[in-house]
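chain below, 668 aa
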Amino acid sequence: MCDQSESYGRPVMAVDIETYSSVDLTKTGVRPYTEAPDFTILLIAYKLDDRPTKIIDLAASEKPLTLFPVEESTLPAGDLRQFLRLLYDPSVIKTAYNAAFERTCLARQFGRDCPPGQWRCTMALAASLGLPGSLGMVGAALGLDRQKMEAGKRLIQFFCKPARDGGRHLPEDSPEDWEIFRRYCIRDVDVESDIRDQLSVFPRPQEELAAWALDQRINDRGVAMDTTLIDQALALDARSSQKLLKEARRLTGLDNPNSPAQLTRWLEARGMEVPQLDKKTIPELLENAPDETTRRVLQLRQELAKTSVKKFEAMQRGLCRDGRVHNLLQFYGASRTGRWAGRLVQVQNLPQNKLPDLATARELVRSGQFDLLELTYGSPAFVLSQLIRTAFIPSPGCRFIICDYSAIEARVLAWLADESWVLEEFRGDGLIYEATAAMMFHAAKDDIKKGGPRSDLRPKGKVATLACGYQGGVGALIQMGALESGIPEDELPNIVQRWRKANAHIVDYWQTVEDAAIRAVRGEDVTIAHGVRFQCESGYLFITLPSGRRLAYFAPQLQPEPQFGKLGLTYMGVDNSKHWSRLKTYGGKLVENITQATARDCLRDAMQALESAGYRIVFHVHDEVILDMPIGEGSLEDVREIMGRPLPWAPGLPLNAAGFEADFYMKD
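prediction:
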């Protein structure tokens, strides 16, 4: 079901603001930015329906009117009282590009919440159609008549950020630039409105609008932080770094042995070839070290280069007055699939904790017993990386319920491709790694279990399950850690072939999906199993998921693939260098997109059900939810039941969730 109110039936007010704060928005996120004592909104531009965009100048209004006489400006002047009436009128839809910023800043400026259900985010709408992230890039990609003004970056640097001397530039410091800045603010509203109007012919399902509103409530809620642990972790790192640097200076005689250039010259003088000093090359350099001194210096470099402390620094920067970190997740941050992306602390990319006595190590750091910690656990850098997750804590009087879907992508892929033996395993024991190895090597599943006579096959079943589902080969196995698991490299091609033979329906599904996409670009309307539909419309290739949500590929084209002797599918998207360019795709990659997007929709619906049942989500990581619940309220069993409920749009998909309760965030 689509909500036409995105464009029709109700008044719509587009909003853009320009702000000042001495806090660096890019390093802290919007909440600390607005909590700075000098935070203020400078300009508000707003456009009601098709009327001309108006500007409210909050900065200039503080100065004598003779400085900025209204009659000297041709820009339509707005009325603050009118704007606030519209802002707080629940019948008016408010839109903005990255609406989370406007919502948060306006709430701080005027001391009144801006309920997310009354807002629509045009950036999320653009992302849902496979378009780039920035307003300017979207406008350029769509070829709008009105484009974002190039002068904006310079003017934001001048008026919205502290000057080099720590002071602040005011409108009267450059009246001509200030008038251009006012025009720039109006132009942003006009461009956002043009983008919204052009894209509103593809209204989003109501479930997606509700998911964005829930995302905003989760980010508004934030998660509590253990500030004592954070402070002590940073103190331990500073102490450890000084100790390591002192030893490195003694061994090398260098002023700054942490400098890659200085250390490279020192190593080369000892007969070593050093292509570069990074995480990947140091292990090989250690193997080739000519003596123990060189080896120890490289070990010190390895320790000093560990980045675990950067997570603690990000937590400290993002900490708000309420003792919480907010806005950890971005809705539709992965525009190809619609999955969430991590921001600030990057909760989607935290080291796993493997210390068996995590709570003890945690308390030693919190209490400042650093010598005992180092004596017991060794490298402080390693311990700190293990403790990053534990800095997230429940609210007072609460505990975390942490629950995630079990092997969700493998379940969804098998369901989409009708790989019946995999589905039966998930409906039964759920030991997919053992079952996969059993199918690949014709062994008894019980023998492959941990401790069994053929348990050596389990790592092969695991890495194949993780790496081969999306047409991955030997390279994918290596990337998934096959070599680190002890599997010889010469065995990898055989593992790929055995997995593909055991999963013939999934292998066929890659080609089915690729063929359907190519046929759609040629003008057909193709539907395959579970209602997955391929069609081209208005310059997009759309893939309708079982949930009803659509994946979008902008400006699809078929181009020759001489090395494969066939036509290949391409589309416009953002590449790894963040440039808007033409990208290639293929059956396995499209299957990955469909599978991950479907798994994402399972989580979307589960989160809505959890919130409706009174569970407070404070953040989520991939397929895992972290719930902040008062002691005595709710239960893990209830959460598992809610997450495992059959979905009406995915009949036959076997879902299962597992979890635990804890006094801090961790991996079980």
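The chain has a mean pLDDT of 93. DSSP finds 27 helices and 20 strands in the chain.
thats it, cya
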